[in-house]
């Protein structure tokens, strides 16, 4: 892939690798002013932490797939400065808002978060000089709240719905957090960095995560992704299908809360933090991108996160385990899905207080 010259402030994507020359979707305008020069990478001097976001390594899980027919590529999103993929969307959403004038110097940014988007926004707001208020359910792990506070964010914790258990955040819990985030945004006249609504969420993955995967892997047959807002799935799947419509894209949900697969909710309080909220309507998730839905149990997500750590030396969270469990399902059951890409969305360090690491 060739991009615009450093310093011209404009990125132009042209695919240099043969079958990936299909023009990008109009949905995600790729000629975008960016304060960040894409040419800067991890091995170059960064002008700020913002330049250290993205360009994460892609690792072949050769030990876990030994003896199986096929390959799984894992994108190490826990190596972003906030230890999650959400740094990417935080930067994109803030830069989009600056470009449109929705965010002005001195403004406050508010967002509902399970911790990772909040950490990304705390980093971006610290580097750019905005106040940030993170609104989070008490059901999410405490490490996240403490990290956001350390980064200068004001953290507002919202009680879970009656009967809910810590570590198991349901759609009902999330509705309470949403209500509070709206109230704070109104009261403070703040900019709401709404990851469920703003196209910048999906666009960050369309512009960066997925092209990086294509370039690093040399090509894939399938992608599967555990869905929260649906931004990662939508942005990556759109890019993959623009490159090659034959690439199969599967979304991943918790067993017992697989509403996007059309199933009834029997277990809303699963352990896979960051998604699986059993929300039928996800504005960023375009249905034409979905080739199929996969379900993963808590037990499988935990086991696979632990195997990632033990066998591959990759210390990641619950949803990374869910993505790996789903990719192994695909590898074992779907003909033609031989090279599968997954994200490892965040770090295992964020779950030291949970039963993921006994
Ligand atoms: C750890 C983790 N995994 C997965 C997801 C889901 O990602 P997306 O919102 O892009 O669907 C999130 C979202 O917050 C997350 O924090």
Kindly summarize this structure in a few lines.
The protein is built from eight helices and twelve strands. It is α/β, with parallel strands linked by helices and 358 residues long. The chain has two domains: 52-84 and 202-351, 3-Layer(aba) Sandwich (Rossmann fold); 86-192, Rossmann fold (3-Layer(aba) Sandwich).
Helical residues, percent: 25-40%
Number of domains: 2
CATH T-level topology of the largest domain: Rossmann fold
What's the overall geometry? Answer: globular
Strands side by side in the biggest sheet: 3-4-12-9-10-11
Mean pLDDT metric: 88
Q: Mind describing the biggest β-sheet?
A: 6 strands, mixed
Count up the helices.
8
Low-confidence stretches: 1-40
Radius of gyration: 19 Å
Give your account of this protein's structure:
The protein is of the alpha/beta class and 358 residues long. It has 2 domains: 52-84 and 202-351, 3-Layer(aba) Sandwich (Rossmann fold); 86-192, Rossmann fold, CATH 3.40.50. The radius of gyration is 19 Å and the shape is globular. Helix 5 packs across helix 6 (231-243). The protein has helices at residues 86-100, 116-128, 142-150, 171-188, 200-217, 231-243, 298-312, 318-333; strands at residues 10-11, 32-33, 58-60, 71-76, 108-112, 131-137, 154-158, 191-192, 222-226, 248-254, 292-296, 339-344. The longest helix has 18 residues, at 171-188. The model is unreliable at 1-40 (pLDDT under 50). It has a 6-stranded mixed beta sheet with strand order 3-4-12-9-10-11, sandwiched between helices. Pyridoxal-5'-phosphate binds next to helix 2 and helix 6.
């Amino acid at each position: 892939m060739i991009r615009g010259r450093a310093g011209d402030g404009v990125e132009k994507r042209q695919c240099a690798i043969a079958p990936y020359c299909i023009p990008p979707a109009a949905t995600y305008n790729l000629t975008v002013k960016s304060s960040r020069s894409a040419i800067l990478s991890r091995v170059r001097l960064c002008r700020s932490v913002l330049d250290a976001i993205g360009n994460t390594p892609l690792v072949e899980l050769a030990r876990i797939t030994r003896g199986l027919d096929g390959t799984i590529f894992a994108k190490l999103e826990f190596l972003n400065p906030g230890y999650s993929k959400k740094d990417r969307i935080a930067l994109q959403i803030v830069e989009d808002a600056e470009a449109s004038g929705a965010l002005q110097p001195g403004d406050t940014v508010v967002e509902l978060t399970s911790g990772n988007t909040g950490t990304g926004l705390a980093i971006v707001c610290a580097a750019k000089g905005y106040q940030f208020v993170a609104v989070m359910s008490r059901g999410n792990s405490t490490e996240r709240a403490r990290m956001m506070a350390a980064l200068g964010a004001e953290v507002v914790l919202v009680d879970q719905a009656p009967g809910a258990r810590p570590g198991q955040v349901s759609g009902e819990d999330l509705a309470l957090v949403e209500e509070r985030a709206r109230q704070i945004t109104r009261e403070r006249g703040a900019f709401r960095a709404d990851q469920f609504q703003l196209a910048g969420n999906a666009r960050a993955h369309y512009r960066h995560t997925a092209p990086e995967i294509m370039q690093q892997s040399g090509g894939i047959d399938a992608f599967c992704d555990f869905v929260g807002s649906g931004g990662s799935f939508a942005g990556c799947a759109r890019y993959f299908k623009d490159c090659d419509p034959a690439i199969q894209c599967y979304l991943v949900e918790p067993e017992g809360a697989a509403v996007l697969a059309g199933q009834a909710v029997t277990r809303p309080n699963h352990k896979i933090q960051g998604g699986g909220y059993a929300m039928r309507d996800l504005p960023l998730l375009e249905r034409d991108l979905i080739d199929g839905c996969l379900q993963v149990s808590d037990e499988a997500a935990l086991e696979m996160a632990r195997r990632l750590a033990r066998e591959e030396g990759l210390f990641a969270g619950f949803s990374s385990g869910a993505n790996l469990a789903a990719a192994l399902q695909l590898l074992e059951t779907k003909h033609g899905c031989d090279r599968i890409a997954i994200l490892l969305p965040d770090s295992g360090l964020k779950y030291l207080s949970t039963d993921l690491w006994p």
